[in-house]
Amino acid sequence: MTNDLNKVLARIDQDLPDALDRLQDLLRIPSVSTDPAFASDVDRAAQWLVNDLNNLGFSARKDETPGHPMVVATGGAQDGAHLLFYGHYDVQPVDPLDLWNTDPFDPVIEDTANGKVIRARGASDDKGQLMTFVEACRAWLAVHGTLPVKLTFCMEGEEESGSPSLVPYLEANRDALRADLALICDTGLFDAQTPAITTMLRGLLGEEIIIHGPARDLHSGAFGGAAMNPARVLARILADLHDDQGRVTLPGFYDGVPELTDALRSQWDGLGFDADAFLGSVGLKHPAGEAGRSALEMIWSRPTCEINGMTAGYTGAGFKTVLPARASAKVSFRLVGSQNPQELRAAFRDFVRARIPADCRVEFIDHGASPASVMETSHPAFEAARAALSDEWPKPAAFVGAGGSIPIAGYFKSILGMDSMLIGFAKDDDQIHSPNEKYDLDSFHRGIRSWARIIDAVSRA
Amino acid sequence: MTNDLNKVLARIDQDLPDALDRLQDLLRIPSVSTDPAFASDVDRAAQWLVNDLNNLGFSARKDETPGHPMVVATGGAQDGAHLLFYGHYDVQPVDPLDLWNTDPFDPVIEDTANGKVIRARGASDDKGQLMTFVEACRAWLAVHGTLPVKLTFCMEGEEESGSPSLVPYLEANRDALRADLALICDTGLFDAQTPAITTMLRGLLGEEIIIHGPARDLHSGAFGGAAMNPARVLARILADLHDDQGRVTLPGFYDGVPELTDALRSQWDGLGFDADAFLGSVGLKHPAGEAGRSALEMIWSRPTCEINGMTAGYTGAGFKTVLPARASAKVSFRLVGSQNPQELRAAFRDFVRARIPADCRVEFIDHGASPASVMETSHPAFEAARAALSDEWPKPAAFVGAGGSIPIAGYFKSILGMDSMLIGFAKDDDQIHSPNEKYDLDSFHRGIRSWARIIDAVSRA
């Protein structure tokens, strides 16, 4: 099949100018999903994809939802490996518009110190990325008339507005969507030379605690000393959440937190992650998590507890001698391995309640929970894809973690019973969600070639 | 002299309707000092007092300041005890006006379940109070043609707007204002039956700490675990400020904190202070300060540390997985005895700095400091005034503490070298600074009689 693949890669190189034109067409559609003013544009972007996929020979359609439509398409081989591809065609708003150097919906190709880029809202997140996969399919089809795998597309138009229709849609279309493996193209490279398959995504548990003390704000002169100050209670609780070694003190917190395998540790060591540069980019020097862990472990494979917000009393300019009636904090936990969010929520609430004195009461607000996603990398497609990526890029691909959450992989697992490979070609400096978003032409070109290789490799795995 | 006094008291009773008319005249002048729109009204109130005191035979004048004028007057006996009387003729703003049941500047006499009241802005704070003293003088002068003491008035028009001109004025007029003792009428009764002389006022030290961590707010997924969270640092610092016994942990904090004398403890025990009712009025049950101290000690004679405000990260509705770049708190200490505010500020800053990890830095904002005021109750006027008050009211007078700060007494001591007796007749339910402020007619009437007695008693002490 190597010869088959080589022809596809050559076709990709030859077709790159046209592929760029097509991406620019799609980028010109301002498919901002969160703003109702752009609803018809979001629909137009969906229709653009449907038309393009139909032209390629897929059977494509818009599936309406209460929000924006799903673009669904099927095609490729009649048997063999069945892959589901996920990307999203909606984009973030562009505000503040005055910080853009060009029209966010009039894409331009620019020369930069790091090579050519295509600059527009959605260039990286996620139109440029999803088109790498579409273009890889186009080249395969152009050269061979078919694909070596069976393929389903499921592309969303609400990813940037909280995906309200996604779970109901997946639940209502289990049978139609289920495949052997999902490919999700919404992540990044490890660095400009090193591709990555994200195999570990931390989960997230969000809680808000509101500690109520006196019936109203009090004058700290008249009542100070005698009246319980809920801000003091809150500070004690928050301080108690970590020990001196940076470990989270909730009972049972580390149940289900696995140690890295030797194989993964060795891959990560090989990445040459520059912790100094990573922290230095935000003005820091010292990894702040558990003693004895590397910065990479802290963000990829270790759980955390963070105070995301807290407030009590008077926070304006100057001073007010108020003894506040309430104090509140938003606290989140990043979860790994098989940590159970519901058990940890209960443990957290017990921990807090045990520290509420007689004259206070506590109120909890549930801000959601999702477990970590840990991919089944024993599936042969993972090593096949890793080898394929390693063939394309200057440095070998690695299985990496991600500190944040990408819920779609969890939904594919829990609703469709399907593992996901998260592969993408974005760079840290793509400025997604910010003004002047861009996607490197190198990401786009090698991205298309990467998918062509992966389709080939997975079909033979 | 008893006969002299009795005639004065009889005159006060007889003149009460006219005294009320005069108070209502003064209350009709909207002397809101903080709002420039009322500047001419503030001046008019000052002129009203000057005219009234001149009519009584005092030599009265407005002394201009960069802000509102001081009303200064001298008169009374040529020799003997020399007293300085302080009150303020400015008032708080009336907002929110829609919560008033009557026009705040159209005083009315109302019958209530607890007796007649005069309702208007400033009725209690402080026009009603200062007029108790003026009316006592009027009665003495009407009956005897003179006073048994030498008297200086110093009445301020900026008390409700931070007294910006007060200290420079006192410093520039040391010789003219210095007397044997100051009488300050801006405090309250212990309860409706029990008059009080406030002899201990807590001082106040205000500090703001701002802990800076990362150069910008971070995504808690991308950086959580590896990046230091300043909110966590702040929580630890604030939690460390108290031990498990409710004591403040700053080194040296209790230096200069005296134990109550047996005499004072005995007086306080005799007050029958109802801690349950005091805390119950604001929805609390348990004195929250140092273990083993009574609630009255906690608010009158023990120092405190309170968090008056704190903020970090996202505090709006919902949730945001932000790792904040900074966290800040406003912290104040109520001081007693001879605690040194400047030494404690330094101790606090050392305490905080010792808890700032390598990747954070701390910024401090000085929000002022004043030491506690502890009156020299050994001055014979104190016991004389206490006896005089005890003669007038149903229950004996007590020397009491006050949790809040009244800076004027400290200034009289530090600038004029003069002790102060703080005596007033306000009640806890007078709603000062709030809508529907009132002053009980009983406070006004007995207040005038109280001053007549005190002038008599001090003249013979």
Automatic annotation (TrEMBL), chains A, B:
Keywords: Hydrolase, Metal-binding, Protease. It comes from the Bacteria. Coiled coil: none annotated. It holds the Pfam family M20_dimer. SUPFAM superfamilies: Zn-dependent exopeptidases (SSF53187). InterPro entries: Cyt/Met_Dipeptidase (IPR051458), Peptidase_M20 (IPR002933), Peptidase_M20_dimer (IPR011650). This is M20/M25/M40 family metallo-hydrolase. It comes from Roseinatronobacter alkalisoli.
